[in-house]
Amino acid sequence: MNKRVIDVQKFLDDHRFSGFQWAILILCFLVVAVDGLDTAAMGFIAPSLVTEWGVTKAALAPVMSAALFGLAIGALTAGPLADKYGRKKVVVASAFIFGLACLLSAASWSLWSLTVLRFVTGLGLGAAMPNTVTLMSEYAPRARRALLTTLMFCGFSLGSAASGFVASHIIPAFGWRSLLIVGGALPLILVVLLAVVLPESVRFLVCKGASAERVARILKRISTDTDLSGATFTVPEVVGAASESSIKALFRHNNGVGTALLWTTYFMGLVVVYMLTGWLPTLMKEAGISLAQAAVVTGMFMFGSTFGTLLMGWLMDRMNNHVVMGVSYAAAAVCVVAIGMHPGDVALLRVLVFAAGFAMGAQVSMVILAAQFYQTQYRATGVSWMLGIGRFGGILGASTGGILMTMGYDFRTIFFGLAVPAALAAAAVSLKGVYYAHRPSAIPVGSAPELDAH
């Protein structure tokens, strides 16, 4: 008697989103939330370092950029590791690394010690984010994949926003080290939950030839009343898939143009995000605004990003993804110019920074675009390399802010210039949409519905 063959993605599509899948979403949400809190922390710590250690803003550039270099290297290495060894192992290990390193950063005694520890923190942060996105997307039904993955990734925006609000309360009372203690303790607690509860990606297991019994045990947690006895499991990519380097695959199978444009878009977007969130508190303080007010205004950026990201996830399940992204980045360029025109109006800046964050929700949604574009065998690599290459845009934004201020450029000039990378991001993601709308041939390996070809 022939065994039943069950397509894992079709199984996910045909069953309701279960409590088990919600648990995965919540755990991944918590990982990216503490990731966001730790990533944003240096922007709120920087003014205190200038005062306590008597250093110049330009001298802070290595500290501000150290975690970003770590983020880039962590992302570039973690994707191929996750495609080889599994998403869960990399997520758990990365959360442990960035939690421990952030906690140790609170004991820093000099700029170089803080720089080294922030670099190690970045290694863990960079490895965690792409693999939570990949894991979540591989447990989501196709019809709601963008919204559910976006909902999970909102943890990053909320974590970054929470960093600002937490910083405004605890740094004045307990000093800058207290923010790093909070940022280190939370992920270490979370590691225990991840190790016990978080499952491996079922699609990854099928691609790697895991036993049918192991796959069936996971799918039974999604639908307890489905009989999976004697079944074998498949995903579309397995059929005809060739063994090749996951990195090389990013430029094969007609992926090359899309890969380059994804990298360009994400790079430009992070120039905007890191220059704004990293240096806005310092710029506002120089304009005579208190650090507490500056922290709250900056926190509005990531708070707005949360709402923008949710709307974009909803729209991406219903509209052309590239139109949604292109319009959002263009709106962000307009908002950044408006911020530059009102440097001293705290009430208005709250609204404008919130609006800029709302529009830059496109940056968060880029990981959804990448996860939809690549196949299971190299999806983690595709997402992580976009994030890793993009991090160099974050490094440019974080380091350039301090240099421009030291050179004497004012609030208005810096923000007018910041509109340029936002506009370039809009152009790049729109070009990707145009190119793949007229793609000369279908992807030869895998399933068309798994690709973001429209």
From TrEMBL:
Q: Name one GO molecular function term.
A: carboxylic acid transmembrane transporter activity
Chief location bin: membrane
One Pfam family it belongs to: MFS_1
Q: Which protein is depicted? A: 4-hydroxybenzoate transporter
Mind telling me which residue stretches traverse the membrane in this protein?
A: 20-46, 58-78, 90-110, 116-135, 147-171, 177-198, 260-280, 292-316, 323-341, 347-371, 383-405, 411-431
CDD domains named among the record's database cross-references: MFS_PcaK_like
Q: What's its membrane topology?
A: Multi-pass membrane protein
